[in-house]
Amino acid sequence: MIPFLVERFLCDLQMHLEGVIGAVSSSDGEQLERESHTLKSVSGTFGAVRLQQQMTEINECCRRGDVKKAIKLAGNVKVIGQLTLEAYLKN
Amino acid sequence: MTETPSILLVEDTASLSAVYTSYLRRSGYDSTQVASGGDALIELDRGGYRVVLLDLQLPDMDGIEILRMVQEQKLPVAVVIITSNASVNVAVESMRLGAYDFLEKPFSADRLIVTVRNALKHMQLSEMVEAIKERTHFYGFIGSSLAMQSIYRTIDSASASKATVFITGESGTGKEVCAEAIHKCSPRLDKPFVPLNCGAIPKDLMESEIFGHVKGAFTGAISNRDGAASLADGGTLFLDEICEMDLDLQTKLLRFIQSGTFHKVGSTRLETVNIRIVCATNRNPLQEVQSGRFREDLYYRLHVIPIHLPPLRDRDEDIFEIARTFLVDYAEEEGKDFSSFSSDAAEIINNYDWPGNIRQLQNVIRNSIVLNDGQVLTADMLPELLGKDSQMPLQNEDVDNLVLRSSPVVLSNDHSSNLGYQNRSAANDIEPLWVVEKRAIELAIEACGGSIPKAASLLDINPSTIYRKKAHWDQG
Fold first, then answer.
1. In A, which residues are within 8 Å of B15 by CB distance?
2. Does the beta carbon of B464 lie under 8 angstroms from any beta carbon of chain A?
3. All domains of chain B in start order, with CATH
4. Fewest beta carbons less than 10 Å away: which of A71, B189, B269, B361?
5. A8 within domain boundaries
6. What is the DSSP pairing of strand B7-10 with strand B261-263?
């Protein structure tokens, strides 16, 4: 069961990471709010704490209307996302 | 513990859906997973779910819309909101719309299972309360008052047993309806229900009515006949007005109840039947026992499960509920448009004592519908009830309102009809019958505006009788 769940997590992680990165590059506040909201739940449920914290901050900025700050906070999301992926693939 | 209640999981993120499903399955709960609001609505429409785990952020709609729909349609499900947006506004809005609980993502398996378990228990208790509370109708009874809920529960409990039921209550409270309900609730519902009114049958024929007779048993017994006991074999025998039964027959009834066997009148053959007895009376049975009119041993043999039907005046909101049902039913039957009561008519109906109980209410509503037209039944369409007794009084000289009940204008040999005359009790005040008769007929003709056929109808005699008598009087 666990391998199946991790596999699902990795799929969602990649999909929604791409969503966040795409929203940042197009400065789409609405999409960024949506994707960070989902990634926050997914990463939190699977114990990816660092990613969860980052997504929480980005999401809160979006909900406050501070898209500029949200985009800034998402600056290193690619790196953190990659580190998270590698950690789960290794284990 | 392995339970298989129905849980609907509405979560569009595949990994989260998989995790929650595994949490539930590990604790023995099965679930259906959908990934969109549209699919959730389809599943809810199918029904059978008790708990919905609802994500708010769905690809095709806001999950709050689904919660709103559940509330509007009063679906019997407990909705647990699962969201990572746990702002106060969202939580308050969700609870305002009737959500059972609110889980902030990420949450542990234990948190989810405890919440689901509590939600299921809550639904189970709600269903039990609704099952008891919602009985506005019960096998011919109409009414949701507390008094009647107690009666329904007693009938539920008593019906499965073979024990005798003794129903008491004023006239018109529904004793036969109660007996039928007991029969229909019981395992005997496919077998006969045989009612017998012990007060309506002449005492000489009562034994034959209950036990049957063989040919030649008495004058008039031209063939064998099964009595109510044989006809009710396997089913229920309802003895109404049981306190009217003759003492000798009570003895035979007691023997029958004790042994389940009897002899038909005039027969030596022992008959055996399997019946369940329900009896009823509008008298006080203990008083009848104390006054020697009812056998004490029979009373205690019959009085195993007592059910006392409350008078209508003690049934609070049931009065109007029943009146409304009669209004709709009789309006349809009579082809009238009545659909509601005016507020003053409703007040009169609710405040009246109804000494004749449901039967009287039934007659009043029917009378009002037949004699009037309109969509709303108003106070002036009701008979004069306030401060009056149950008998419909003579309102005025108008023939259409002439309703003669227990004091009809009937000529009788015992001189007891009075038509409003003073009671003539002294011997020298007694008039010849033809004088009393002539006065009664003339008064009736005058009240009917000179119409002899109308007067004859009310006097319950043939018009030719009046013409003949008038001719005789005119001759002097």
1. 5, 8-9, 11-13, 42, 45-46
2. no
3. 7-132 (3.40.50.2300), 141-308 (3.40.50.300), 312-393 (1.10.8.60), 401-476 (no CATH)
4. B269
5. yes
6. unpaired
Suggest the residue from B10, B15, B112 to mutate for an interface test with chain A (most A CBs closer than 10 A).
B15
Q: Are B84 and A41 within 8 A, CB to CB?
A: yes
**Both ends of chain B: CA-CA distance in Å?**
101
Query: Chain B: residue nearest A10 by CA?
Result: B15
Closest CA to A62 of A49, A51, A47, A72: A72
Q: Is the CB of B13 less than 8 angstroms away from the CB of A34? A: no
Give the total number of structural domains in chain A. 1
The CATH number for A10's domain is 1.20.120
Domain-located, residue A78? yes
The DSSP secondary-structure symbol of B202 reads -
Residue A52 contacts B where some CB pair is shorter than 8 Å: yes
Which pair of tokens denotes residue A49? 């704490």
| pTM for this prediction | 0.51
Compute the CA torsion angle B116, B118, B121, B123 (nearest 10 deg).
Answer: -70
CB contacts, 8 Å: A64 with chain B? none
- Say whether residue B84 is in contact with chain A using an 8 A CB cutoff: yes
Q: CB–CB of B105 and A34 under 8 A?
A: no
* Domain presence at residue A91: no
Report CA A21 to chain centroid distance, whole Å.
9
User: CB of A36 within 8 A of CB of A62?
Assistant: yes
**CB distance B180 to B324 below 8 Å:** no
Q: How many CA atoms lie within 13 A of B420 on its CB side?
A: 7
Which range of residues forms the domain containing residue A61?
2-85
Whether A48 maps to a domain, the answer reads yes
- Output DSSP code: residue B62: B
CA-based nearest residue in chain B for residue A14: B15
pLDDT tens digit at each of 476 positions of chain B? 444 458 999 999 999 999 999 999 999 999 999 999 999 999 998 888 999 999 998 999 999 999 999 988 888 899 999 988 777 888 888 888 899 999 999 999 999 999 999 999 998 888 777 666 658 888 889 998 888 988 999 999 999 899 999 999 999 999 999 999 999 999 999 999 999 999 888 888 888 999 999 988 888 888 889 999 999 999 999 999 999 988 989 999 999 999 999 999 999 999 999 999 999 999 999 999 999 999 999 999 999 999 999 999 999 889 999 999 999 999 999 999 999 999 989 989 998 989 999 999 999 999 999 999 999 999 888 887 654 444 443 333 333 333 333 333 333 344 444 433 444 446 666 778 888 888 899 888 888 778 887 788 778 787 778 887 887 787 65
